[in-house]
Design brief:
12 helices, six-stranded mixed beta sheet, alpha/beta
């Protein structure tokens, strides 16, 4: 039986034509606007949180615990979703930019999250983070609370089911628009979105390419993450769907690393906004779509003429140093 979920997102999200880019590159380009899943919940995380938070409440939990960088879109979306459901929320955040009281971090505080900052060395160590998590859970349990941990990016089998649903929604929209999609482009970080997308596409008979552009990790690490989450999703649904033949990850556009934006990235984001009226974020879509259009211009997507880009949101995450890269 398919797990139940809350209905927190505004669905279906729009599927729009990128008119200027289609003319410039000579292909048909659409963009799936998951940045419009809801103002406070903007982005891809809400589809995953709908399943995870339903599970949390069914298990009698009253407190949600999750992780992220200081400007984590996932952390902010989790606090929003928790607030809507009357749940408390604890965030374990990398302290690198904690002095910048802006963007998602400001919204986390505005929403009343209990924020616990840790050094980058701790945040980057699964063992160290697990120790902090255990301490927080013990603290809350001593107050009579019950804590539900949500992984980074809400990226586990149950969470990724939200993007299996999105795949079906997207294919139905393409059908109604008479758009024979042959390539779908996603970003990849914690891999939950891409894993669920692949599952849903495979289940619904999609025969084209589904490309993930990494914003942090090398292709092999991403592939391992996808296979692990896909295995969990199969366990959740009692299936044995193999998505390995659909996995295609590009890692050459990671640049200096996660959440590190270049002048070139910002110039692309600026041009994209002027051409389309759509804002990209500096961490995921700004970097990934910049790489995609470079590859498209270089002829790396021969045979693909009807392409859909997945906009995963993230507008709230701009830091001052990233904004300062925009020169008029």
């Amino acid at each position: 039986m398919k797990p139940k979920k809350y209905n927190l997102a505004y669905l279906p999200t729009p599927l729009e034509k990128l008119e200027a880019a289609s003319r410039e590159y000579g292909v048909n380009l659409l963009i799936k606007r998951d940045d419009m899943s809801g103002m406070e919940l903007s982005g891809n995380k809400v589809r995953k949180l709908e399943y995870l938070l339903y599970d949390a409440v069914q298990k009698g939990c009253d407190t949600i615990l999750t992780y992220g960088g200081c400007q984590s879109n996932h952390a902010r979306a989790t606090v929003v979703a928790a607030a809507k459901l009357g749940l408390a929320c604890v965030l374990i955040l990398d302290n690198t930019y904690q002095h910048l009281h802006e963007g998602n971090l400001f919204l986390d505080r505005l929403l009343g999250a209990d924020i616990r900052f840790v050094d980058s060395a701790v945040y980057d160590s699964p063992e160290a983070v697990a120790k902090v998590e255990a301490e927080v859970i013990r603290e809350y349990e001593s107050r009579g609370k019950k804590v539900y941990p949500v992984p980074i990016g809400a990226s586990n089998g149950l969470g990724s089911l939200g993007y299996a649903d999105e795949a079906e929604e997207l294919l139905e929209q393409c059908k109604k628009m008479n758009f024979p999609v042959d390539c779908i482009v996603d970003t990849i970080g914690s891999a939950g979105t891409y894993s669920g997308l692949l599952y849903g596409l495979k289940k619904n008979g999609y025969a084209g390419r589904c490309l993930a552009i990494s914003i942090a990790y090398d292709a092999e690490a991403c592939r391992k993450k996808v296979l692990a989450v896909s295995q969990e999703l199969n366990a959740v649904l009692g299936t044995a769907l193999d998505v390995s033949d659909l996995i295609e990850v590009w890692d050459e556009f990671v640049g200096a690393g996660y959440a590190l934006t270049t002048k070139e990235n910002m110039a692309f984001i600026h041009k994209f906004a002027k051409d389309s009226g759509i804002f990209l974020d500096p961490v995921y879509t700004g970097k990934a779509f910049d790489g995609f259009f470079q590859a498209l211009k270089a002829g790396r997507l021969k045979g693909c003429s009807n392409i859909v880009l997945i906009h995963t949101g993230g507008l709230f995450g701009y830091r001052q140093d990233q904004r300062d890269l925009l020169k008029y």
